[in-house]
Design goal:
This protein is 44% helix and 20% strand. It is an alpha/beta fold. The protein has one domain: Glutaredoxin, CATH 3.40.30. Strand 2, helix 3 and strand 3 form a beta-alpha-beta unit. Helix 2 packs parallel to helix 4 and helix 3 packs across helix 5.
Amino acid sequence: MYPPELVAPMKEDLTSAGFEELRTAEEVENAILAKGSTLVVVNSVCGCAAGNARPAVKASLQSDVLPDRLTTVFAGVDREATDKARQFMAPYPPSSPSIALFKDGELVHFIERHQIEGRPVELIASNLMQAYDTYCR
């Protein structure tokens, strides 16, 4: 587990952009199973989260169509919430960072770490915006 003071700015990077931080398995389940669309960002302390994932999800919010709920869990900090989110992300293996889009509780789009590392922020954001257009109308 990482010290709270270390991860606070990394969490705030998303929460200040409108993402709800999910800390318990119950909060994750309620968000994902709610009617409509839910974006879940598995946040992380790694460089590709700071340089690619967080900037990309924030850039994707410029879309005309957005998920009903923007949420985040933090790998290595909120273990219960992260483990529960990852159960919903099967069959994909655990990946930090990663980005999942759910529609009415069903996983409809997933971006794994290997699709984030070294990719331009604009490419990841565009990928998300296309998914929003497809699944969030």
